[in-house]
Amino acid sequence: MSLMITDECINCDVCEPECPNHAISQGAEIYEINPNLCTECVGHYDEPQCQQVCPVDCIPHDPDRKESKEDLMQKYLTITAA
């Protein structure tokens, strides 16, 4: 499943540059993750880099976007082929 950023986000700016798919951007109030670009770093890293650097632990899995590792790998292949 893709990740999401919750309201606990403090806009510290550390997650955005860590995303290899450029799925994270500044929203109206807090950072947001584009679920169409989020692969949880599958294809790039073993673990989601944004979760690793977030100082307030506000980047959980999005329960509304369930995806298997295979789905995430297919999304990665599609994104990197473009």
TrEMBL record:
One of its GO terms (molecular function) is metal ion binding. Pfam families: Fer4 (PF00037). Residues 1-29, 31-64 form the 4Fe-4S ferredoxin-type domain. The keyword Transcription does not apply. Gene3D superfamilies: 3.30.70.20. Keywords: 4Fe-4S, Electron transport, Iron, Iron-sulfur, Metal-binding, Repeat, Transport. The keyword rRNA-binding does not apply. SUPFAM superfamilies: 4Fe-4S ferredoxins. This is YfhL family 4Fe-4S dicluster ferredoxin. It comes from Chitiniphilus eburneus.
